[in-house]
Amino acid sequence: MHDGVRAWLANAGIELPADPAPEGPAPEDPVSAGPDADQEAVARKILLDQLTGQARSRSELAGKLAAKGVPAEVATRLLDRFEEVGLVDDQAFARAWVQSRQPGKGLARRALAQELRRKGVDDELARVALDEVDPDDEVEAARVLVRRKLRTAAHLERDVAVRRLTGMLARKGYPAGTCFRVVREELDRLGHDTEDVHERFD
């Protein structure tokens, strides 16, 4: 009954019984019932946005969710679900990363391992992906890097060229033996005398 009518009757001395309580349980408060569902929806959108056009490791995605304030239990539940359906797969991520970065950037396995570790990929999963790199391909990638750099370093004194080229390869993760071998061979190909380098590092 309208509150105005109830007040008018009360002034007239006529008391009405209170409105009966609705049958069945009270409806759930949407404000108190909503947060978990809302958080999961927000987290799901974050994950899908992050995965659009680019694979990411589980650790990277967990970091994105944490930065957005998604509770840990919600993040874990969704990441587990995404793994179940194959949207999150650290093994596939590691393999794709190696296949892209090894020939594309000329990175050696050691540098690739460090990158995958920074991405939060388990060392064992990373090792499986890195084992797929052919040692000959790794050496050839180093050779390509040296030849590219020689376009601007060929005029340098031998010692300076060796130092710069081996330093460049070392930063790419190549072991010292590979660095000096490839640099020596490429400088020899251009007529540089690198015999003393051979004697010091072989």
UniProtKB/TrEMBL annotation:
Q: Where does the record place Pro residues bias? A: 19-28
Q: Looking at the keywords, is Transferase present? A: no
An example Pfam family from this entry, by short name, is RecX_HTH2
Q: Where is the RecX first three-helical domain?
A: 43-81
Which InterPro entries does the UniProt record give? RecX_HTH_1st, RecX_HTH_2nd, RecX_HTH_3rd, Regulatory_RecX
Lineage top rank: taxon: Bacteria
| UniProt GO BP | regulation of DNA repair
Which GO cellular component does the record give, naming just one?
cytoplasm
The UniProt keywords, alphabetically, are: Cytoplasm
Region entry Disordered, spans: 15-39
Domain named RecX second three-helical is located at: 89-130
Residues in RecX third three-helical domain copies? 136-183
Q: Report the subcellular localization.
A: Cytoplasm
* Similarity comment: Belongs to the RecX family.
Function text? Modulates RecA activity.
Protein name per UniProt: Regulatory protein RecX
From which source organism is this entry? Nocardioides panacis
